């Protein structure tokens, strides 16, 4: 028997994760982790996830406009867990950060690990232009054209590419958990790019953490 789309366990763990903010790992430890990643050029799986005892897989996803995004997957908990399909959860980071921000705390305080330990198939995205998603099929990061994108492209290309990839890999609808800017471009996508009926075909539920829906006094730096 398959999973029901709406799952109260996810809601509970998401709410509990808010409480973990009071038990954050020390800033010095997080800074050391980021510095070690930059110095050794290790990937997220090698440097962060696997040392905690979790299985980790890395995927490349190409958007319709040629950007190559990295996604990381934690398919099961530290103890392995029961066999069978696990309901997928996709975690999208906020603006001026990348997917590593979900993993900077100890396992019991990091939402991806908490979800994996409680029966979910966890996927972490890294948006275009961030450390692990800086490739393009024809452009280099030194090209001005590489950076010629904004919120519209995140909504029109990155969101459908990552959501569609997880759906095709798992064969299941997914839960989408997003922080900050995700509220903007998923709302834009649902309203202007993907018809609600189509979006519902891929996603069970959206969970937003501090989503802004209106931005003011921002100008184009180009």
Automatic annotation (TrEMBL):
Which GO BP terms, alphabetically? lipid metabolic process
Q: Is Transport among this UniProt entry's keywords?
A: no
Tell me a Gene Ontology molecular-function term this record carries: lipase activity
User: What are the Partial AB-hydrolase lipase domain coordinates in residue numbering?
Assistant: 48-105
Q: Could you tell me which SUPFAM superfamilies the record lists for this protein? A: alpha/beta-Hydrolases (SSF53474)
Q: Which Pfam families match?
A: Abhydro_lipase
State the Gene3D superfamilies in the record.
alpha/beta hydrolase
Q: Which residues form the signal peptide?
A: 1-25
Protein keywords: Signal
The record's annotation in InterPro entries points to: AB_hydrolase_fold, AB_hydrolase_lipase
**PANTHER family, from UniProt?**
LYSOSOMAL ACID LIPASE-RELATED
Q: What is this protein called?
A: Partial AB-hydrolase lipase domain-containing protein
Species name for this entry? Answer: Musa acuminata subsp. malaccensis (Wild banana)
């Amino acid at each position: 028997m398959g999973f029901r789309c709406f799952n109260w366990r996810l809601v509970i763990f998401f709410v509990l994760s808010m409480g973990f903010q009071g038990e954050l790992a020390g800033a010095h430890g997080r800074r050391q982790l980021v510095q070690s990643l930059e110095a050794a050029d290790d990937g997220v799986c090698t440097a962060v996830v696997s040392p905690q005892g979790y299985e980790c897989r890395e995927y490349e996803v190409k958007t319709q406009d040629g950007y190559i995004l990295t996604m990381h997957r934690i398919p099961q908990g530290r103890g392995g867990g029961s066999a069978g399909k696990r309901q997928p959860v996709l975690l999208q980071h906020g603006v001026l950060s990348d997917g590593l921000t979900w993993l900077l705390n100890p396992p019991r305080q990091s939402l991806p690990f908490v979800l994996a330990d409680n029966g979910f198939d966890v996927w972490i995205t890294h948006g275009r232009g961030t450390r692990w998603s800086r490739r393009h099929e024809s452009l280099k990061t030194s090209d001005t054209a590489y950076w010629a994108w904004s919120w519209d492209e995140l909504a029109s290309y990155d969101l459908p590419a990552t959501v569609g990839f997880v759906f095709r890999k798992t064969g299941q609808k997914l839960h989408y958990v997003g922080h900050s800017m995700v509220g903007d471009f998923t709302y834009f996508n649902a309203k202007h790019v993907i018809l609600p009926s189509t979006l519902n075909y891929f996603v069970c539920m959206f969970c937003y953490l501090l989503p802004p829906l209106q931005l003011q006094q921002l100008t184009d730096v180009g």
